[in-house]
Amino acid sequence: MVRGTKGAGRARARRWIGALALLALATGAGLWLSRADAARGPQAPAPAVAAAPPAAAAPPGAAARKPRPSSGPDELPEPIRRFLEATPYPPSSGRLTPAHEDLLFPNRRYERLRPIPDTIGNEPGEQVSWLFTADHWAYVGPAMVHAWLEVRRGDEPLPVEVVAASAVREGREGPLGEPVPLDFARDGDRLVADLPLHRFADHHGAIVLTVRFAWAPGREHEDALRIFSTPSDRVPGRFARIHDALHDGSLRIGVDVDLEQAGFYRFDANVYGPDGEPVAFASFKGELVPGGQTVPLDVYGKVLRDAGVPGPYTIGEVRGYRFLDGLFPDREQLADLPTRATTAAYPLEAFTDAPHVSAHELHMVELMREDLARGIPLLVPPLPGEAEAAPPADGAAAAPAPGAGTEAPAADPAAPPP
Amino acid sequence: MEAIGVSCVLGVRSRGPWIGLALVALLAAAPASAGVGGDDAGTCVNACGGYGGGNNATACWCDSSCASYGDCCGDYQPVCNNNTGCVANSNRRYILHLGGMCSQGWNDRYAAASGYTAIDVRAVQTNHSALSDASYTMGRYLDQCCTGSNACYVLNFSGGDNVMGHRFANSSTNWNVYWVGTSGGGGGGSELSGNFLADVFGPCDYAGHLGTSEVRNSYNHNDTNGKTVYHIGGYDGWWYSSWLLPGEDDGAVAFHSAGARTTTTSTSNMCSTPKYTNHVAAWTCSGYDLDHGGMKTKFITEMGW
Hints:
The complex is a heterodimer of chains A (418) and B (305). With 418 residues, chain A is α+β, with helices and mostly antiparallel strands. Chain A contains seven helices and 20 strands. In chain A, strands 1, 15, 16, 18, 19 and 20 form a six-stranded antiparallel sheet that branches. In chain A, strands 2, 3, 5, 6, 9 and 10 form a six-stranded antiparallel sheet that branches. In chain A, strands 4-12-11-7-8 form a five-stranded mixed sheet, with no helix packed on it. Chain B has two domains: 79 residues, no CATH class; 210 residues, Alpha/Beta hydrolase fold, catalytic domain (Rossmann fold), CATH 3.40.50.1820. In chain B, helix 6 links the parallel strand 3 and strand 4.
């Protein structure tokens, strides 16, 4: 795919901004401030960074492990430096690694074998443990829930008898309606139960599956697990197809959706390299209107540059939901896009290598700078390893700068505003 | 109480006009109620003007009379009056304190930091709907306390980790949050969820919603709107919990949760990877010799606040 002239110009502009940012990181806050002001346009000159930023009051008995105070003017104050270093990409995009199992395998479950309390402390071979889980967390439409129960004594499977098992709808006030019996059947070392969700088509939200089993004569144990169901009539839309393009130095994944409901939506997708290696994640959050439309999920260019993996990329795990703020349940899920798509073969050079800079980030830096000028300590927790290396922070915070006003610390946090 | 019970059906309490006049003055002067209703307290989310919502929402109201009756739900002020204790866009600095499971607020020592005002986030985390309710309420605080010329630190504990994460992942607002500090974070869920957790920390319906599968699938933990979330954890678990929680634990959550790991595998190191994007450990990899309750204000003391 050939990069357009307009896009190339924007990409160069981003690189220029990025270069400025890197330069500022190396030379100190002053340049950052002038750049931030430039980005805001002509305004009154910003006050200089406090010549001697105040240090935090030393916590008693924690001299070597205290938070790191702001540094002098000849280096970027630690909180600002760390904030900038932590935001090389926009929040909607980042590196995807094999460690991101939550993103690589969305909708997985995390239950594990746990010891039945009555057997805790037994010899390892006599400890009884159980696992009650299912194939997924969330289901869309009339899907089938595959749940199973495993019980072990030591490392060996332990045959158990299911005493009672059921599934019940759950609403904001708790269980809704009558429980539906859940039938288990043996499948190797497991007891399995399939729950057809068409029987719960009237319910949107959590369904609680409960099983009580006898693991020894007269010894029973009960466990429950929750699944989340979006019935067909609450599915807010559907995915159609995805496509890709170069956009402003970034990879734009266009997700075509047909939405039936307006609202605040969140969409996520994973990006893999030619060899299937995880490369990036991208997301979209925002208000959408009903109807067919393309939702942009931008993979910021520097994410791909830092990964060092050129295209073609594979786009997978495209998923999303309509968020219902303050309601319960708080989302209506779309069925995941069942297919993957392959993008054009983009060279790495097509993407920007500039750190991401947003108006919000510049505003944050400005706020931090104002704190320093007002004598408000800027603190940041030390990372492990930094704690012992942190220089001592002597003295108390300086008085606020004239005109900066004072704050009454924790006078009455519950009090109404003045 | 009978009168209240009857009018509960209608959702509005009847009262004389003189009461209303008196209440206007009382309400203006009254601090936000600590909330009533006990461990299964009700919430005003989607209930303003009437009886509190949520499971077992006993004796908790969200109408304009509740302040005088002393029976407001804990989140009445932020949810129904948009009163968070913050002054929007006032060039002020706040430290938001977000409590944990089964709480209606912080209910502990606040950070006393020069130049900052401590705010108790009155988010009700007791009901089946606690995560969405509390997240909604937290949004009120963030919108008012942490936008425009204001800026914030957010300190959360236990289930507050989940609430903050849920809010980050489901909002496109760029709040002026310098960073988030988390003690004994529940963002990875707990293998004790359900009866075990309720037995330990007091019963509330939300205790059953903190299982690893539910919590880890409730929101995208990697989306923090670009803000760094610092985590500290305790390892003073007890004999019983340590059998059920993998690796080190504080009696309620294991390090895989307190340390924001993307998996539930056992670990005794808060720094161990893999971690969710933008989540890091602070101060120490080994954690603290504290139980879950003891961890609550540890971030504050470590900050020297």
